[in-house]
Design brief:
This is Crosslink repair DNA glycosylase YcaQ family protein. InterPro entries: AlkZ-like. It comes from Thalassospira aquimaris. Pfam families: AlkZ-like. The strands form four sheets. Strands 11-12-13-14-15 form a five-stranded mixed β-sheet, covered by helices on one side. About 40% of the residues are buried. The protein is α+β, with helices and mostly antiparallel strands.
């Protein structure tokens, strides 16, 4: 059955793996024209297509949330993204909360996460120590909340020694856990992050204004809306893909999918090579095409679920940050390189800020691709990345892998430096 026909609820459309790959890239916004000037409007459009930017503290290259915009739109001013997420209340378009993981999420989606906040307030769906502290230390939680209400924004470390009165002392571990509980339950929100990446918290209405009081849909309605947003962002997905994208409860997702298929808001799909059933949006454009050439960080939404990456792109990728150095296969912070919609190489990158260079610590070519076809486009994108990161001395290639040596020779020829 062709993609652009509308089947009955119990029917399925047939999707080839090539179509699945194309749907996934279009859903993620890789069909945009990156030659246009990058504005705040275009940044927000890109974020709305992915639904969120994942936040991570690793800064070996740059903070993770800056990179998906670069991958989709090219070089831009990171200060524009800072204004969108940390600017004044009237300018702020994003808020930080638990989406896939810690994420920056469009403010208009705030009501869709209220069910998660309500669960957390009752000690559900959170880490064990956060659930315990709301039962065992209600006076600590109330004390911190009262302090913020009276005195304004504060970080956990500001409260680690002394409580709100001269006679009350708060321990660091418990204070941080209590603040995490308040954040997870939506009673406080991240106003900004310090250079150390520590959150500074305030009350939600002081940060996102009236949006903090918008009516929240009921639990399954909100989750159904998130699933529909997720399927639009992924293009095509299994039940597990949809559950993992927003970290939704398994039982709730099953109930929502039955309802959404019955209502015609989702279509079932048989995808070539997939053991699991797929789902896609009935409004999908089967003729849309995306063949991007870009670098992606491990925290890009395309890369979130490794089994999905392998299922759609035939690319086996594992993040090795937490692997002992001697056991790493490719390196510490490895970015896959996509050329015309296919993963063709991976590079271990580091920002050497004192030297002002983008350091390529190793480069590895995927099987079936020629060094001569990949090296030129990869070097072009590495130069763009160096410019985006403000590394004025460009790129430096090191490493003993065969493709690293070849890339170094290509870079020497381009830059006029010694290999």
């Amino acid at each position: 059955m062709p993609v652009d026909s509308i089947p009955m609820p119990d029917a399925s459309v047939a999707i080839s793996i090539k179509q699945a790959r194309n749907l996934a890239l279009c859903g993620q916004g890789f069909d945009q024209n990156d030659s246009k000037p990058v504005t705040k409007r275009r940044i927000m459009k890109a974020i709305r297509q992915t639904n969120m930017l994942q936040v991570d503290s690793v800064n070996v290259l740059t903070r993770a949330h800056y990179m998906p915009i670069f991958s989709r739109l090219g070089v831009y001013d990171p200060a524009m993204l800072d204004d969108i997420v940390w600017g004044k209340s009237r300018d702020r378009k994003l808020f930080e909360y638990w989406g896939h993981e810690a994420s920056m999420i469009p403010v208009e989606d705030y009501p869709l996460y209220r069910w998660r906040m309500e669960d957390a307030e009752q000690g559900k769906g959170t880490w064990g120590r956060i659930a315990r502290i709301q039962r065992e230390k209600p006076e600590l939680i109330k004390g911190i909340l009262d302090h913020i209400e009276r005195n304004g924004p504060v970080g956990s470390s500001d409260l680690e020694e002394k409580g709100d009165s001269s006679s009350e002392w708060w321990g660091w571990s418990e204070t941080k856990t209590a603040m995490e509980y308040l954040f997870w339950s939506g009673q406080v929100m991240a106003q900004k992050r310090r250079s150390s990446f520590e959150r500074i918290y305030d009350l939600p209405h002081r940060i996102i204004g009236d949006a903090a009081h918008d009516r929240a849909p009921d639990r399954l309605e909100a989750q159904s809306d998130l699933i529909c947003k997720g399927i639009a962002a992924m293009g095509i997905a299994t039940e597990a893909d949809l559950r993992k994208y927003f970290r939704l409860p398994t039982a709730d997702v099953k109930d929502c999918l039955i309802k959404l298929v019955e209502e015609g808001r989702l279509l079932r799909a048989d995808v070539e090579g997939w053991k699991q059933a797929g789902y896609l949006c009935p409004k999908v454009n089967p003729r849309a095409r995306a063949k991007p050439t870009c670098l992606m960080v491990p925290f890009d939404p395309v890369m979130w679920e490794r089994d999905r990456v392998e299922r759609i792109f035939g690319f086996n990728y594992r993040i090795e940050i937490y692997v002992p150095a001697e056991k790493r296969q490719y390196g510490y912070y490895v970015l896959p390189f996509m050329l015309n919609g296919e993963f063709v190489a991976r590079v271990d990158l580091k920002s050497e800020r004192k030297k002002g260079v983008l350091l390529v610590q190793s480069a590895h070519l995927e099987d079936g691709y020629a060094q001569s076809d990949v090296a030129g486009p990869l070097m072009t994108h590495l130069q763009r990345l160096a410019a985006f990161l403000g590394l004025e001395n460009g790129v430096e290639v090191v490493g003993d892998a065969a493709f690293s040596r070849y890339l170094g020779i290509v870079w020497s020829a381009v830059s006029g430096t010694s290999p």
